[in-house]
Amino acid sequence: MADDEGRMEWGGHETWYRVAGELDPGAPQTPVVICHGGPGAAHDYCEPIADLSRSGRACVLYDQLGCGQSEHLPGAPADFWTPGLFKDELVELTRHLGIAGRYAVVGQSWGGMLAMEHALERPPGLRGMVVADSPASMTLWVSEANRLRGDLPPDVQETLTRHEEAGTTDDPEYEEAVAVFYERHLCRVPMPDCVQRSFAQIAADPTVYHTMNGPSEFHVVGSLKEWDITDRLGEITTPTLLVSGRHDEATPLIVSEIHERIPGADWVIFEESSHMPHVEEPELFLETVEAFLRTID
């Protein structure tokens, strides 16, 4: 398989991407653009999703602006980092690669939020999307995350609350307490290298994650705090597959709100997974997504 890296210049910025497989606009299989989460987590932990290229389907991994191998802008004002910025970047990437006329999007976590925002624009070339482990409302996300947090051991809960109230969420003790939550609801298998690399690069430059989200998955104090597209989901006409884990922080309640509103959406729950079925149950994830993609080719 071809494996081609490149950099896209757009709007005075620079975005890194890598193509797994051969990008041919005339290929029988619809190419896939993979949108990572975070925001600001970079593409690394999504590398297993690019194994969709095993059947000859071209897959595009990219680092959204502000993280990974793309341009970093630690000095940008907070209001620079908006969903609109990343929607523009995605559109420009499909144009740059010559696939704007026909492509699918697989978005994980924040990437799925971005995919739904993108679908609401009704781009003519978007043939289908996979929304993996994503909310449509950050208010509901925080509510559910804190419900799950209530099941953590009392000493872990106390540590989290104490550091959040003191504003010391960068303390190693807080990070260790967060890890207890992550082991239950983010990734229930030993984190592979690709996941560790994403965590490492967020730690090295947390600008986007801290600005848009906050210090942790359940302490959302960033610009996405009030983000909610629930009432607009009925406008989406793109064929959609929803994916989530039984133990996901994107809980069944969160995903059911999307499933009920996107017309014709399918939904698959991975029983042994939390927030990363593509890592926790990789083969089943690939088979499930491949089956969906064949319906839109």
Could you explain the architecture of this structure?
The structure is a single chain. Helices cover 37% and strands 16% of the residues. It is α/β, with parallel strands linked by helices and 297 residues long. The chain has an eight-stranded mixed β-sheet with strand order 1-2-4-3-5-6-7-8, with helices on both faces. Helix 2 links the parallel strand 5 and strand 6. Helix 1 crosses helix 2 and helix 4 crosses helix 5. The model has no long low-confidence stretch (mean pLDDT 95).
Q: Main beta sheet: strand number and arrangement? A: 8 strands, mixed
Quote the average pLDDT: 95
Query: DSSP strand (E) fraction?
Result: 15-25%
Helix content: 25-40%
Shape: globular
Distance between the termini: 20 Å
* Oligomer type: single chain
Outline the fold blueprint.
Elements: E1 3-10, E2 13-20, E3 32-35, E4 59-62, H1 83-96, E5 103-108, H2 110-120, E6 126-132, H3 138-149, H4 154-166, H5 172-185, H6 193-204, H7 207-212, E7 240-245, H8 252-259, E8 266-270, H9 277-280, H10 282-296
Parallel strand pairs: 3-4, 3-5, 5-6, 6-7, 7-8
Antiparallel strand pairs: 1-2, 2-4
Helix pairs in contact: 1-2, 4-5
